[in-house]
């Protein structure tokens, strides 16, 4: 993501495009929404824990859009910066230097969505 962009703008722009896709691909988008709901609902792991795992995967996949949406949700779920930093540390441990770079993106997103 470029240095002057922010995660609120990024997630907003992606949301607009996803609404456009919903109009042209309703079955695909409905199925995607159902998959997301099933993959993040409370179960043996809490929704917050599952979102933290998803954030770690987003770092490993180097997906800024995913980082934005998962961090936004984590802030809404009351995630502390310390919890976020622990997940980022684990992601860096598993993913090395590239994950370190995207961990800084997640910290920036957390600060933006926490305002």
TrEMBL record:
It holds the Pfam family CMD. This is Carboxymuconolactone decarboxylase family protein. PANTHER family: ALKYL HYDROPEROXIDE REDUCTASE AHPD, BLR3452 PROTEIN. It comes from Paraburkholderia bengalensis. The lineage of its organism: Bacteria, Pseudomonadati, Pseudomonadota, Betaproteobacteria, Burkholderiales. Residues 26-108 form the Carboxymuconolactone decarboxylase-like domain. InterPro entries: AhpD-like, AhpD_core, CMD-like.
């Amino acid at each position: 993501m470029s240095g002057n962009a922010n995660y609120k703008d990024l997630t907003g722009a992606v949301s607009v495009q996803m609404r456009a896709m919903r109009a042209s691909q309703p079955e695909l988008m409905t199925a995607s929404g159902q998959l997301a709901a099933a993959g993040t609902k409370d179960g043996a792991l809490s929704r917050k824990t599952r979102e933290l795992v998803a954030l770690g995967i987003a770092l490993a996949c180097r997906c800024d859009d995913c980082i934005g949406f998962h961090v936004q949700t984590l802030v809404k779920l009351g995630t502390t910066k310390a919890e976020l930093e622990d997940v980022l540390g684990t992601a860096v441990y598993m993913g090395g230097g590239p994950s370190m770079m995207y961990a800084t993106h997640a910290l920036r997103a957390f600060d933006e969505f926490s305002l």
